[in-house]
Amino acid sequence: MAGEENAMNAHDRVLTALHHQEPDRVPIEFGAASTSSIVLGPPYGYDALCGYLGLSDRPTPQLARLFGNSVANPDERILEQFGADLRWIAPDGPDLVEIDASTLWNPNWGYRIISIDGINQPDDASAPLRDATIEDIRKYAHWPNTRDPLLRANKRQEARRHREHGFAVVANPGVGCEIFEPYTRLRGWDTWLLDMRDDPRLYHSLAERILEIDVAVMQEFLPEVAESIDIVFMADDLGTQHGPIMSLDDYRRFCRPYQARWIAEARRLAPHAYVMMHSCGDFYALIPDLIEIGVDILQPVQPKASHMEPWRLKHDFGTALSFMGGLDTQELLPFGTSEEVRAGARALIDEYGAGGGFIFAPSHEILPDAPPENIAAMYGEALAYGRYPLRTSGDRGLAHH
User: Fold this and answer.
1) Rounded Cα distance, 187 and 254, in Å
2) I want to staple 191 with a disulfide (CB 3.0 to 4.6 A). Which of 187, 200, 268, 334 is the partner?
3) Cβ atoms of 95 and 161 closer than 8 Å
4) Rounded to an integer, what distance in angstroms lies between the CA atom of residue 300 and that of residue 328?
5) Report field, pTM of the whole predicted structure over 0.85
6) Strands 274-278 and 297-299
7) Which residue in 287, 132, 111, 100 sits closest to 182, CA to CA?
8) Residue 337 CB partners (closer than 8 Å, separation 6+)
9) Is 301 left (phi over 0), alpha (psi -120 to 50) or beta?
10) Distance (Å, whole) CA 173 – CA 176
């Protein structure tokens, strides 16, 4: 076990792990809005966690209202207590417009956001381009402003400050981090998938327009922060609970070329940064293609989805990829006992941690059904148990194969 006097700083710890070497301990992630943060809402949520940790003087929560209402500014004392090694930076943008108590409007893409049981989500039924023609797409008035000064304002200084404080830095291009999620919000999930076969000309017209915007946003944002960042974040959900959203052939025809071009531009603008891909669900069959187009890190590796077990991913792809996430938020964190959560954290570290290539985190943002004692148990165990050399041989996963 590494002594405290030999402990690495957070930046070196993360980079050592991403180089597939073993640092002093397994790196830890917490607090990124909509990926690894915690949602504000009953019965527990952020308020209960702060109360459990004795933080009565916490700053007023700022919510990532676009999706899910996760807290965008968790108290720094929580990040320190949980051992969080990464800090995230993203461009700012125009505020959401409140239509009524349960409905927002996103000026970046021009779609509505509705609240269901206190959780915000795009209003699929009113997708603004659902019935559009190619000409309608050309004339659409609500594309993001790729010259908005907010995309770069003060971002160079913010990224440098995180680096100077010894953290690894993740750059999330914000409105420019996704290709097919905006497609679904503009056309609807069902229409996205139907367009591939029923109207491929329209499909490619809209996908090209979205990629064009993403690239323009990255060109504004990434040069400001490139010298200080370690990871560039991209996101597009490609999996369901039991398999990919589409066939491998359709992925290669309709999605891979756009994601490959996105990654190539990100690498041109930030050549020293790793590329991290977010996708929920089971997209196991697509992973070799993601490796080929340049993905370095998968996040949040949802362990209850088919084919996404930690032992399987580590065994099959652990030399080519790193993994961030994996602590089950579907069943274990909300419904397990604190001791079961601790055991789950230990098992996750055993299966992913050998040889580096792993950053401990939840398998998505933490919803309000997770008791605060379980969240504290999760991170406390990761800090206590995840010291290198690990107490397992690292061969545990092979027995499952």
Assistant:
1) 16
2) 187
3) no
4) 10
5) yes
6) parallel
7) 111
8) 374
9) left
10) 5
Q: How far apart are CA 68 and CA 85, in angstroms?
A: 24
Q: Which two tokens stand for residue 297?
A: 């890190």
Low-confidence ranges of the chain (pLDDT < 70): 1-6, 392-401
368 backbone dihedrals φ, ψ, rounded to 5°? -70, -5
pLDDT, residue 6, reads: 62
Instruction: Write the CB contacts of 199 (distance below 8 Å, at least 6 apart in sequence).
Output: none
Burial class (CB in 10 A: 0-12, 13-18, 19+), 396: middle
Number of helices and strands (H, E) in the chain? 15, 15
List, as one string, the DSSP characters of 84-116. --EEEE----PPPEEEETTEEEETTTTEEEEEE
d(Cα 116, Cα 68) in Å, to the nearest integer? 10
Whether the Cβ atoms of residue 293 and residue 263 lie closer than 8 Å to each other? yes
Structure-block tokens of residue 57: 């003087």
Q: Looking up tokens 């640092």, which residue turns up?
A: 23
Q: Determine the 3-state secondary structure of 15 from DSSP.
A: helix
Paired tokens of 233: 């974040």
Whether 63 and 53 have beta carbons less than 8 Å apart is answered as no
